[in-house]
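Standup, Tuesday
Yesterday: got the pipeline producing structure tokens again.
Today: sanity-check two examples.
Blockers: none.

Example 1:
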Amino acid sequence: MSARLLTHLRHVDLAVPDYEKQLDFYGGVWGLTKVAEDSGISFLAAEGSPEQYVVRLRKAEEKRLDLVSYGAASPEDVDTLAERLLAGDVRLISRPGKVDTPGGGYGFRFFDVDGRTIEVLADVEVRQHRRIEEKEAIPVKLSHVVLNSPDLNRTREWYERHLGFALSDTLSSPHMGEVMHFMRISNQHHSMAIAQGPHTSLHHISFEMRGLDEYMRGSGRVIRAGFKKVWGPGRHMAGDNTFTYFLDPHGNTVEYTTELELLDEDTWHPHVYDFSRPEVTDQWGTANPMNELVAKESFNDPDRGVFVAPPV
């Protein structure tokens, strides 16, 4: 495994044909704040997060995942990582340099093994943020992103070798074998997970709420607004976090969560959980059963952005 140079997840960028409908969802019922907009691109922040934005939306003819962005501690670490990736024959989209997105910064982009665009940024200006109040049911921050891969272990090994991710836990079953790896770049149980899927695509984006009450209030608000609830409310065993999953207007799965486990990395040993046991998928037993229909929603549409860099 490579020495760890990534610090945290910064933002997830989506392209969609019905831009206005998507913007209304994320900037409305989902509870993010639009902080900048320019000719078919908008940037949405979480009020409790120091990140300039946690979601970027772009108007496009085809739905796709534009990129996933991670933080690095310094420009020197960005340069070191770029050199390491070049030496490892990773295909760079851009070389390290100054960026002109909100908050600026220094970074570069490259393709992962499945053809997703990944961005690494340092020196981004901290956004003025605030403490989320009791009963205020809006996202505090971006929690994690889960990606579908047609070759689960190849993708896991690539992220370990090139980006310093560590395995926290695995979901498996007697019939299907390994179906998900939870990966970390800090003591947070996972900032990314890799799911076995029929094609490369976005599985879900997760947003952390202030606490259990705010998580339930937010889930109820989205349900009352008429958006499709895919799965939840419940509590996973791997990561010990709560979950309610919804579909955004373009069929991407988005999650409200809270209380994601923090690990002692020096003593942690990964578990292999049998997800055919109901208490593994939901410790509480309150969520609708995990079945083929729920799983199919999370497969999403095949990503149209594989090995095609976003135009901005």
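Example 2:
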Amino acid sequence: MTGIEGPFWRAIAVFRVASLVYAVVLLARAGGYAHPATGWLVIGVMALWTAATVFAYSVTEFRGRPLLAADMLVTVGCLLATPFVQGPYQQGSLPITATWMGGAVLAWGVHGGRRLGALAALAVSLADLAARAAGASGPPGVEAVPINGVVLLFLAGVLVGHTARLAKKAEERMQQAVEMEAAGRERERLARGIHDSVLQVLSLVQRRGQEIGGEAAELGRLAGEQEAALRELVRLRPVEPAAGTADLRTLLQRYGSATVTVSVPATPLSLPAGAARELAAAVGAALDNVTRHCGPQAPAWVFAEGDDGTITVTVRDEGPGIAPGRLEQAAADGRLGVSQSIRGRVADLGGTVTMVSAPGRGTEIEMAVPAPESSDVPHQNP
């Protein structure tokens, strides 16, 4: 057995065997009850099923709904055989299965949590009540209802199911922590390699461009910007999911400059922190394209709005526009700025990108992403 569930299933197997031995002892001490042959036949069925479940519990692939359903059927069948073995019901007596019937409840609880454990306890309790009613010599009274047994079954199903579910969640979180640690080590390894190669080259280009001047100075400036962005990307920090929400307006207003006009509404544009950063990065990629294809002094406009559970950001310029087929050709040539930096990011957020452009008429890129309800996650400053 592997995983955190293994000890639970081993414990149920031990409980099954011990309960079977207890049922055998009770049957032997009672002299086989009223019908010994039937009693030992039921014990034989219980023994065979115990052996089958002990084996099935040890194989992960077998621990599913079919096994649990069969387990419940066998348990209920053995319980209902009680009046045919013991005869008329005697106050305070245990059924032929004794405590063995609790094994099915425990198995359902471990597999499906406290809810399925409670349902299994209800099914077994109803079967026990039906068996007692069938063996009662007169009208059933309150004293004939096995309250203690019913309560114990429900407690076992709920508590064991709840504990098993908590253990599963703990195992999942531990696995996530291990993966995060491995990702952090990989990020550190990549950071060392990039620092020893790409970052040093970019730094050299920046310095030489400033020394040479002219067009080389502009090249050096761009190299410096890329160096700073790359250093931020590989900075050693914990790799973990973004928590809380961020106001997209704050992230977009950072792009405002003498050539870029940013217009945002007066009310917050709340998104999960990670989604807000990704959408802002897509806007940054669109503005980079404006600078690259229209010139560093070309004006651009960024408009953001939220409506009907959707946040829409539009980036517009008055540049030369995009010729038909140019984006497809760029993707085929391996230049994935628009397809990955913009469309890919927005698609990962479950949004859409609409691009309107024509030669000589500028370009308009509209990015729309779904916005969660403000109460879904707590607010977090970006």
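Quick observation on example 2: The chain has a mean pLDDT of 80. The first strand starts at residue 245 and ends at 247.
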